[in-house]
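fyi for ur records
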Amino acid sequence: MRRPGAAVRAGLLVLGLATLGGCATLGPRSAPNLQDVDKLVASHRYGEALDALSRVPPSAADYAKARARMAAVRREMAHYRTGLLKKVEARETAGDIKGALQTLQQGARDLPPDKTLRQTRQRLEREQTHRLQILDQRMHLARARYLLRQLELYRESLQLRSPSYAARWRKQRTQDELKDLHGHLLDCGRAAMARHDMDLAADCLHAAQRIDDTPPVQAALKELQGVRETQARAARERIRQQQAASERARTKRRQAALEGELNGALNRGDLQQARAALRKLRQVSGSSSRLKELTQAVDEAIAAKVKELLRRGANLYRQGDIVRARDTWREALKLDPDNVDAQARVERADRVLEKLHQLKQDQPPAGPGRVSPAPPPAD
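which gave:
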């Protein structure tokens, strides 16, 4: 005979299955109210709001409004996400990795799954783990330094008085703890070298060496010395490259200034200044296509000026103004010291002026009864 309790349980089971079957025939969830969506957005529950709006069927009267509201929700969500990442970055910059993770996790609950948020969380967790490892290593180092100093004091104390059982026990316990720290310090040195924290690596390895100078510790110290030498060479090379780059920058600025000075002198017609600037530029820049162009420009300008001075001096010479003709040719000779034509003309003018000077000295002075000839009429 079946017990009444079993019959009741069987009836309840049948009723539950019938209820579930009836629920299954109700179809998808009903479309949400847009006011409910606004409440979700106001509380920054953007994921739920978008999920609700996506359930509005195309046949619904509010379908167009739902689509428009969905776009607006996405814009608000993007703004919220940007602000969240800025808060996370601010906390991370301040060194509060824990607070940054908490802020990110709290904000991420209101947002749909996002690749950037996931990558940010993974990066923060890696940074948190990395910093915790460094703190553990520094705590091991601090403990080892303390115990090493304590062991020195125990040894001094034992030299001053007969060792008691408690003193010997404390010394042995300190030595045992240091042995346990030896492996941690060796790992600390190797890990610090791997992330290029050479100061911490040196501190850990030297502490391990004081505890027990084993071959692995010696090998790690030798490796540390090699890494430091490599870093020193790299640092010197960087300094050399920086100095070379700085020197190149100064040379370029000097070249630009001299080119400006040269072009300005050419525009003013000051060819002596242009030649001086060209000479300085040649010392600074050496040989280059730009220097050849500037040299050709200066040479052409000087050649044209010399030609014009020779012509002007010839006109003055024909007019009988020997002094001005000679000075004009001398000016041309300053611009072109190797110009044979200018040299010959200056020498000829000097000879003519010397002869005129001698003739003037040989001419007898005018007496009381003699009248000096009048000067020629002006042109």
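The first helix runs from residue 4 to 24. thats all i got for now
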